[in-house]
Every structure is written in C-alpha cells, then in structure tokens.
Design brief:
two-stranded antiparallel sheet; six-stranded antiparallel β-sheet; alpha+beta; Chorismate lyase
Length: 261
C-alpha cells in the first residue's frame, strides 16, 4: 500500500538551518519509519508528492532517499517505487543448517510451495554440477509475510523418488537426507554469488527485469564423503545477509600449540 503524504503529519523543513535539506528530509522520513507511521513493506510517497509536501527539489528528495537506502531503512524496486525495508534474515555460515532451519532459528516460519517434484529431471539439468549423481529435483518457493522470499532448487539421490510428492512436501531437504536416507552430513561446500535470475525464476519471485538476486550454491557430503544433495537458493537480497566468523593468526597459533600433560 502506498502512503500518501496527507496520511501522516510532517514537520516542515528549515531552509535557514546549517543542516542540508536532504539530511532534514531523510531525518523526517526516518522518524516516520521509527515511530511506525511507515511500516515495513509499505511504499513511500512518490518523489512528486514529497517535493510538494516539503517544498523541495527532486534532487533533494533523491538525496534523502539515497541516504535512507545506504542505512538499510528503505529499498528501491525498479519500476515500482521505494519501500520501507522489511526485517532481514542473517544466515550463520558457521553452523551447518538447512535453509528452513536458518529462517526458523530467527523466529520466521515460512510458507512453502512445492513447484516441482521430479524423479529424473536432474539427469538432464545442465545446471547440476558435473559428477553429481542426483537425479531427483525439487523446486520450492518460500513466502514470508505474503511475499515471495526465495526459490530453492534441490537435487537428491534416486531413492528419494520413492517418497512421493505429498511426503516430500512436508519435509525439508536435510530432513530427507538425514531421516529418510539415514545419512549423516559430514560437511558442505558453499558458494555465494550475485546475478540476474532466469526469466522463469524472476517471474516466480515476482521480480522486475534486470533485478539481481543472491544465489547460494551448496553441495552436502555424507560422513563417507559421498555427495548427498545439491541446492541452489535464489534469495531476494534486500532481506538476507550472511555471517561468517574466521579465526585470526593468534587464534590459529594457539590451536597449533602442543598441549602439556
């Protein structure tokens, strides 16, 4: 929903102040976000409406919006406008966990839609890395707050085909691997990139053309080193971030020191 400037009281700017007008305007809008007048996911008034309401130029409005965007308070969507940023999710890469588990650990219970369950599509999929014998392909869309959040493409061993669509619909990928296949996950290789999605994925996520997404590639291996799943997770980036802690030289040196009996 778009919020018209007439829907909330706004304090006039002070042209004689030493503080630039765009900083004042950015501060006014930030206050409306902070006090809940502008809520997460809500569209800001248009540039023309803000220009009229505050008596400033288009350049001033754009500078104010850019200031809020740099601090993560708003996000611009090409062809749609500027929106108050939603609460983000931080995925901790220090812990081996499934995508659903990463969301649930932060109090988010996503709605999931199973878009595809095929026992053999992985055999012909050119996007599956070479050397992986994972013919079963699942495609799921995750929805948070009534909006598409991510799209997951998962590849699994042939035995998973016997589960059937209804059973697969109820289980996470790691649940399938660990509880149905009975495999202990020993490690996972993860790579993250930013790129434009395919036309199909952009449509499924409701994204305009030329919008980039985060793509996380993950291949998990059993305790014996056998690949047991591969995933591509296409994530709308303005609501997701990754966290990774790395040891410094001092911590590594301490770990290498011999222990005394």
């Amino acid at each position: 929903m778009t919020l018209n400037t007439g829907d909330f009281p706004h304090t006039p700017l002070e042209p004689d102040s030493s503080e630039p007008l765009y900083v004042q305007l950015g501060g006014r809008l930030a206050a409306e976000i902070s006090n809940g007048t502008l809520v997460p996911g809500q569209q800001l008034p248009t540039e023309a409406e803000l220009m009229s309401a505050y008596g400033v130029s288009r350049v001033t409005v754009r500078q104010a919006i850019q200031m809020l965007a740099r601090t993560g308070q708003v996000v611009a969507r090409r062809g749609k406008g500027t929106f108050v940023a939603r609460v983000g999710v931080q995925h901790d890469l220090n812990t081996l966990q499934g995508f659903q588990d990463a969301l649930r650990s932060q109090g988010i219970e996503p709605e999931t839609e199973l878009l595809e369950f095929s026992a053999s599509a992985g055999r012909l999929d050119p996007n599956l890395p070479a050397g992986l014998d994972l013919p079963v392909r699942l495609r799921r869309r995750y929805i948070v707050g009534s909006e598409p959040f991510a799209l997951v493409e998962a590849y699994l061993p042939a035995q998973v085909g016997a589960l059937g669509e209804e059973r697969v619909r109820q289980l996470s990928v790691y649940d399938i691997v660990q509880h149905y296949l009975g495999l202990r996950i020993g490690r996972a290789d993860v790579a993250i990139e930013c790129r434009q999605p395919s036309h199909q994925i952009a449509n499924e996520l409701g994204l305009p053309k030329r919008t980039n997404v985060l793509v996380m590639h993950r291949t998990s291996f059993s305790g014996t080193g056998q690949p047991c799943e591969h995933m591509r997770i296409h994530i709308i980036p303005d609501r997701y971030s990754f966290k990774l802690s790395l040891p410094g030289p001092l911590e590594i040196a301490r770990a290498l020191q011999p222990t005394t009996a």
